From TrEMBL:
The keyword Membrane applies. The keyword Translocase does not apply. This is DUF3159 domain-containing protein. The chain crosses the membrane at residues 45-69, 81-101, 107-127, 157-181, 187-211. The lineage of its organism: Bacteria, Bacillati, Actinomycetota, Actinomycetes, Streptosporangiales. InterPro entries: UCP010219 (IPR016566). Keywords: Membrane, Transmembrane, Transmembrane helix.
């Protein structure tokens, strides 16, 4: 059975090739939650659990082992590797390499920022390559019809959103760098979190608003006979 028939609640209006509607929030959350937990929550939880017992080096090694073990497990079972998990792999690799070499508190807090900078570059590079990372992430969270994704306006939207998120991540990284070198560690930990979440929230709001606007435009166009 193909994905479209096995998950009809995630693929409404497939009989109209260029239309697409957002699924219900509950269906969206059920589909996206496992990927978010696997690629975002679990690596952080594994790191802090190992860090409490084994120290910085042990925490880094445990996080790397979790992420790359998950990738290997998916490959062995013939399942696709999610973009969220690939992003986690990039982040933990950078953090582990610097953490193991330096054992510096400043470098330790610098690592997530370097990972953010790297992801900003990846988002930015995906635009001229014509393979927007925002589209890959979005389709993992909300499966979309292939014909909808081939629509010229949809392609332009995901290119622009990838560019937007490269700027969001660059802004997060610059704020983090400034606070790390100009504020106390305590201030950095608490204030940076709020600022980064705030900047990210703006990106999310703009992305969702733009996508809903895109859907209204694409779905309103008559389907050629």
């Amino acid at each position: 059975m193909d994905d479209a028939t096995s998950h009809p609640h995630l693929h409404p209006h497939l009989h109209r090739p260029h239309t697409f509607e957002l699924p219900r929030v509950r269906a969206l959350l059920l589909h996206a939650a496992p990927r978010f937990i696997e690629g975002v929550i679990a690596p952080v939880a594994v790191f802090y659990a190992a860090f409490a017992v084994l120290g910085l080096t042990g925490g880094m090694i445990a996080a790397v082992a979790w992420v790359y073990g998950g990738i290997a497990w998916r490959r062995l079972r013939g399942h696709p590797v999610s973009a969220t998990l690939l992003i986690a792999a990039v982040g933990v690799t950078v953090r582990a390499a610097l953490g193991v070499v330096t054992h510096s508190a400043v470098i330790y807090f610098l690592q997530p920022t370097l990972g953010t900078l790297l992801m900003a570059v990846v988002f930015l590079a995906s635009v001229p390559l014509g393979r927007p990372l925002a589209q890959k992430l979005a389709t993992e969270m909300v499966p979309m019809p292939e014909a909808f994704l081939k629509h010229a306006r949809v392609r332009r939207f995901f290119l622009r959103i990838s560019l937007l998120w490269s700027f969001v991540l660059f802004a997060n990284a610059l704020v983090s760098l400034w606070m790390l070198f100009h504020q106390s560690v305590g201030t950095y930990v608490w204030a940076r979190t709020g600022l980064v979440v705030g900047i990210g929230a703006v990106g999310v709001v703009v992305s969702v608003w733009g996508f809903r606007r895109l859907l209204r435009h694409v779905n309103a166009r008559p389907v050629p006979a």
